[in-house]
Amino acid sequence: MPDRRGGSGAGFEMSSYYAIGARPLAAPRLSSDERADVVIIGAGYTGLWTALECVRRGLSAVVLEARSVGFGASGRNGGQAIPGWRKGVPDLIRTFGAERARRLFALSEEARRSVLSLIAEEGLECDLRQGGHLLAAARRRDVEGLKREAEALASFIGYGEARFLTAEDVRERVASARSFGGLLDMGGFQIHPLKFALGLARAALRRGARIYEESPVLEIEATSNGVRIRAEGGDVRADHAVVACDALPGGPAPWLASAVMPVAAYQIATEPLAGADQLIRGGLAVSDTRFAVNYYRISADNRLIFGGGERYTVRPPATIEGFVRPFLEEVFPQARDLRIEHAWGGLVSITRSRFPDVGREGRLLHALGFSGQGVLLTALAGRAMAEDLIGRPDMLREMEGLSPSRFPGGEFLRSPLYSVGMLYHAARDRL
Ligand SMILES: Cc1cc2nc3c(=O)[nH]c(=O)nc-3n(C[C@H](O)[C@H](O)[C@H](O)COP(=O)(O)OP(=O)(O)OC[C@H]3O[C@@H](n4cnc5c(N)ncnc54)[C@H](O)[C@@H]3O)c2cc1C
Fold first, then answer.
1. Is the Cβ–Cβ distance between 367 and 242 less than 8 Å?
2. By three-state DSSP, how is residue 35 classified?
């Protein structure tokens, strides 16, 4: 069961490959009562972007993190910065109409620019490689959809970075046994996720945010003139609170539990490879069209980082390497002889719509459920919430209601019901 420190008991306590070589923040624990304009729960990208954007706008911000900065998905993800939303442009148009689809795509581009500008302005060392992102067709039947997406990006959005690649074009870039075609987006890039989270935290600290680690929030209470957050170590009073706990909001904010389904995802890093660039060329980050996505790239120290398979239960697999290997070897049969040096897991939080659930009810704001696209889209959520807090609600309004329906059933019923559905879709990957 999830514990109040945001752990899951599912093997995510172990630190990831990324923890090696990243300089921890070593922020203090909360040890007395505090007061701020905004109190933020969770120090992943969402909480940290919100803090940074708040202090940039003159609001004081306290961030309370149950474990350490980047302990959640932000410090253990695939590191792939994928432009756009989880749904493609034709889907955006169908769901939101042409005008709003254009606006939403433009917003996702702002998120991409925010991340790149922060890296440049701060000199943030996070192994940035701007080699593009490839959405690879995992099956022949996915090719037409990718062609349509390339066409819509070019003609409807006027986005010049993306184009369709044939199976042969893909093979020139990725030495995979499974190449049917793909969508190459040169706007995509890759980062070291934990170094980025820590850099973001340092940027917020430098501008005056206060960050406390090992300080789990136990309760959120509305008061007559604001909020009172009860945390281990003290209380924080503020005008507003932001819930940024992503996959496991249920502890401090039980009303948000049905917004997301936590899905367990596992990754491996091989030994450093002499011919890494032969496997994936030019710093390309790759993910595929499977329901349970495979994603892979070469790290700055020449390891193949591969994520594959998902589990819809908090029970960990017998071994993570044993769980990921079949997916790895299906894509790269030549990886059979490679030594795997690191294996770790994390929780991806997905919403029913696959759009993030961002919103505000009175003095409580929240943003969660980035559905595998949080490396970029969290920047947008942080800015939308900070803007709203200084009386500019437009961006938050645009994001509110993107994910209108929540998961059925209570916290406990919802999971088994939905798991059945997810297992059905994941099984279709094998057809
Ligand atoms: C394995 C994996 C691979 C992924 N790959 C990609 C990718 O390649 N590209 C991409 O765009 N996205 C990817 N994602 C998704 C992306 O990592 C997330 O969308 C993003 O990191 C979410 O950031 P967040 O700040 O909302 O959540 P998190 O980073 O999970 O942060 C939430 C924080 O809240 C804290 N917390 C929880 N409860 C409490 C409490 N009671 N008190 C105080 N703090 C609390 C947690 O400890 C945690 O640090 C991946 C996710 C996973 C798990």
1. yes
2. strand
The CB of 180 under 6 Å from ligand 1? The reply is: no
Burial 293-323 (b: 16+ CB within 10 A, else e): bbbbbbbbeebbbbbbbbbbebebbeebeeb
Ligand 1 centroid to residue 247 C-alpha, Å: 7
**With a 6 A CB cut-off, is 188 part of the ligand 1 pocket?**
no
| Lowest mean pLDDT segment, chosen from 139-143, 171-175, 406-410, 421-425 | 421-425
Query: According to the 3-state scheme, what is the secondary structure of 82-145?
Result: CCCCCCCHHHHHHHHCHHHHHHHHHHHHHHHHHHHHHHHHHCCCCCCECCCEEEECCCHHHHHH
Tell me, using a 6 A CB cutoff, whether residue 295 lines ligand 1.
Answer: yes
User: Does the predicted TM-score (pTM) go above 0.85?
Assistant: yes
Which tens digit of pLDDT belongs to each residue from 23-41? 999 999 999 999 999 999 9
CA–CA distance, 82 with 149 (Å, rounded to integer)? 14
Residue 215 CA, closest ligand 1 atom number: 43
Angle between helices 374-389 and 45-56 (to 10 degrees): 40
CATH tag, 128-189+262-350: 3.30.9.10
Name the DSSP class of 181: E
**pLDDT, average across residues 285-304:** 96
Average pLDDT over every residue of 272-289 = 96
The more confidently predicted of residues 407 and 110 is 110
Could you give the CA distance from residue 242 to residue 63 in angstroms, rounded to a whole number?
A: 9
> Closest ligand 1 atom, CA of 71?
49
Average pLDDT on 83-100 reads: 97
Domain boundaries, the chain: 17-76+194-259+353-425, 128-189+262-350
Give Cα 158 to chain centroid, integer Å.
26
pLDDT at 314: 67
Fold of 17-76+194-259+353-425: FAD/NAD(P)-binding domain (3.50.50)
Answer whether 252 contacts ligand 1 (Cβ < 6 A). yes
**Mean pLDDT throughout 218-227?**
94
pLDDT score recorded for residue 234? 98
C-alpha distances in Å from residue 393, one per residue of 103, 219, 257, 363, 390 = 15, 27, 25, 14, 8
pLDDT-derived band at 199 (thresholds 50, 70, 90) equals very high
Residue linked to tokens 């009386």: 391
Please tell me the predicted confidence (pLDDT) of residue 300: 96
Query: What angle, rounded to 10 degrees, do the helices at 143-152 and 89-96 form?
Result: 70
Distance 75 CA to ligand 1 centre (A): 7
